[in-house]
Every structure is written in structure tokens, then in C-alpha cells.
Amino acid sequence: MDWEQTVYVLSRLILGALASFLAIMLWSRTRDAAWMLVIIGTIAAYIQTIYTVMSLFGIVNESDFTIGAIPLVPILLPSVPTIFIIAAFSVMLARKFRRR
Hints:
- This protein has helices at about 5-25, 35-55, 70-75, 80-100; strands at about 65, 70.
- α1 runs antiparallel to α2 and α2 (about 35-55) packs antiparallel against α4 (about 80-100).
- It contains four helices and two strands.
- A two-stranded antiparallel sheet has the order 1-2.
- A hairpin with a 2-residue loop joins β1 and β2.
- About 10% of the residues are buried.
């Protein structure tokens, strides 16, 4: 692994850990559904980063999680944080339109 890739991976891990830590701290203080979905999306994004680093180092074999010849985790895992963010925005929009 070259220097640029090392800096990239370390920055993703450190910033993701900080975001996840702050999200977990907020989780204990909020009961709002939209914020909970954003928090879950943040944690899912960090899980994706950890999985990517583990597959980069050969700790996780992507071919272990397949349906037929399609690798399941590399296809689904990047979509999970976005799905939770979409759900959070949908909850906020439904809340705004319901008040009118």
C-alpha cells in the first residue's frame, strides 16, 4: 500500500470513528425518529469503511458472501447508509407536510 492510500484509509477510519462516536453519544440523548435514522446511517457508513479496509487487507473474503456469482456485501453495504438517510429525510418531510 502506497503513502496516498495509507493516508486515505487512515483518514476514513479516524473520521468515521469520530462521527460514529458522536452519533452514539447523540443516540442516548434523542428519541426523534429522523435523528435515529441519521445516526444509524452514520454507523452503517463506518461499518462499510471497516469492511472495505478488512477486505483490502485480506481479512474478509468477499466471495464468502455470494448469491450465485454475485458478491452480496460489496453491492448492498454501500447502499445501506444512503437508505437510512433517505428514510430520515422522508420522516422529516412527512412531519412537515402533516402539520399543514
